[in-house]
Amino acid sequence: MKSITVKSRAKINLSLDVIGKRPDGYHEVQMIMQQVDLYDDIKIIENKDKNNIVVTSNCEFIPKNNTNIAYKAAELIKEQFNISYGINIHIQKNIPVAAGLAGGSANAAGVLKGLNEMWKLGLSTEELMDIGVKIGADVPFCILGSAALAEGIGERLTPLEGLKNTWVVLAKPSISVSTAEVYRNLDLDKITRRPETYKLIEAMKEQDLYTLSKDMANVLETVTERKHAVIRQLKSKMMEYNALGSMMSGSGPTVFGIFKNYKKAKAAYDNLLVINKQTYLTQTYNE
Ligand SMILES: C[C@@](CO)(OP(=O)(O)O)[C@H](O)COP(=O)(O)OP(=O)(O)OC[C@H]1O[C@@H](n2ccc(N)nc2=O)[C@H](O)[C@@H]1O
Ligand SMILES: Nc1ncnc2c1ncn2[C@@H]1O[C@H](COP(=O)(O)OP(=O)(O)O)[C@@H](O)[C@H]1O
């Protein structure tokens, strides 16, 4: 029986700008995405005796039926290649759920890449990304990995030089945020602070953490912050604990801090863990 294990990594948005709204309700974005080394472990096992998809997980908060986006990824591949073998997918969740860290999208990307390899389907990265966007806007980035400028609805990607081994602390408050609702509540006319995306890309090229941390911006932040004061509180705690900069990732509610070195990041992590259970110490990840 064939099997494969893959790591599916979380992302943070170092910038997020919304350019406009499309007729289908989706938004045109411009965002800088960076993978971090917080990951779920996915184990895929082929089952030749059955023609079904079974999802299991250590995490009680994700669906195990066909609404799990890892399930959808497997279903698309099985359909496209007319494969009648079953598969069991076990997701060992470490990435917090509904957090703005693309945990689900990363799982879907992991399943697409994993099945491509296990079944030797010969799909290119571009072909995998074309399948991925049918599942969710963040899936193509999770397939590409490392760091990228994402445009369109998030699927048009230009690889960027990522931040190298930069220490990041993630703090996910115990509230839930719906991405769809955050986009719905965004009033494009009321955005006061937008990121200067190309200036930030230059800063990344130079590994200039100071400029990046000072200038990064996420236009969805105010939408989520208005509803949940804890976001602002976590950002100010990150700064109090010596982050170079702190911001909400994606639609939230996770807040991340960027740190100059491990020592400072570890001290902030230790302090934040006392007030916020889901706190993580990690590094940027580039393949
Ligand atoms: C905000 C971001 C930033 O990276 O990430 P998260 O906070 O979800 O991690 C992404 O734009 C989220 O991408 P993703 O979570 O894959 O979105 P999808 O599942 O495709 O869409 C969920 C819902 O968000 C809205 N949506 C999503 C992407 C986009 N460019 N415009 C939108 O308006 C749509 O209402 C859609 O129904
Ligand atoms: N494999 C999966 N992992 C996480 N969430 C999933 C998965 N499949 C479906 N979901 C659902 O998708 C929603 C968004 O989850 P997630 O991808 O973790 O959010 P975000 O993109 O904000 O980080 C959750 O409400 C969850 O129930």
TrEMBL record:
<keyword id="KW-0418">Kinase</keyword>
<feature type="active site">
    <location>
        <position position="138"/>
    </location>
</feature>
<feature type="active site">
    <location>
        <position position="11"/>
    </location>
</feature>
<dbReference type="InterPro" id="IPR004424">
    <property type="entry name" value="IspE"/>
</dbReference>
<feature type="binding site">
    <location>
        <begin position="96"/>
        <end position="106"/>
    </location>
    <ligand>
        <name>ATP</name>
    </ligand>
</feature>
<keyword id="KW-0414">Isoprene biosynthesis</keyword>
<keyword id="KW-0547">Nucleotide-binding</keyword>
<comment type="similarity">
    <text>Belongs to the GHMP kinase family. IspE subfamily.</text>
</comment>
<dbReference type="InterPro" id="IPR036554">
    <property type="entry name" value="GHMP_kinase_C_sf"/>
</dbReference>
<dbReference type="InterPro" id="IPR006204">
    <property type="entry name" value="GHMP_kinase_N_dom"/>
</dbReference>
<dbReference type="GO" id="GO:0019288">
    <property type="term" value="P:isopentenyl diphosphate biosynthetic process, methylerythritol 4-phosphate pathway"/>
</dbReference>
<comment type="function">
    <text>Catalyzes the phosphorylation of the position 2 hydroxy group of 4-diphosphocytidyl-2C-methyl-D-erythritol.</text>
</comment>
<dbReference type="InterPro" id="IPR014721">
    <property type="entry name" value="Ribsml_uS5_D2-typ_fold_subgr"/>
</dbReference>
<dbReference type="InterPro" id="IPR013750">
    <property type="entry name" value="GHMP_kinase_C_dom"/>
</dbReference>
<keyword id="KW-0808">Transferase</keyword>
<dbReference type="Pfam" id="PF00288">
    <property type="entry name" value="GHMP_kinases_N"/>
</dbReference>
<feature type="domain" description="GHMP kinase C-terminal">
    <location>
        <begin position="200"/>
        <end position="272"/>
    </location>
</feature>
<dbReference type="GO" id="GO:0005524">
    <property type="term" value="F:ATP binding"/>
</dbReference>
<feature type="domain" description="GHMP kinase N-terminal">
    <location>
        <begin position="68"/>
        <end position="145"/>
    </location>
</feature>
<dbReference type="GO" id="GO:0050515">
    <property type="term" value="F:4-(cytidine 5'-diphospho)-2-C-methyl-D-erythritol kinase activity"/>
</dbReference>
<comment type="pathway">
    <text>Isoprenoid biosynthesis; isopentenyl diphosphate biosynthesis via DXP pathway; isopentenyl diphosphate from 1-deoxy-D-xylulose 5-phosphate: step 3/6.</text>
</comment>
<dbReference type="InterPro" id="IPR020568">
    <property type="entry name" value="Ribosomal_Su5_D2-typ_SF"/>
</dbReference>
<dbReference type="GO" id="GO:0016114">
    <property type="term" value="P:terpenoid biosynthetic process"/>
</dbReference>
<dbReference type="Pfam" id="PF08544">
    <property type="entry name" value="GHMP_kinases_C"/>
</dbReference>
<protein>
    <recommendedName>
        <fullName>4-diphosphocytidyl-2-C-methyl-D-erythritol kinase</fullName>
        <ecNumber>2.7.1.148</ecNumber>
    </recommendedName>
</protein>
<keyword id="KW-0067">ATP-binding</keyword>
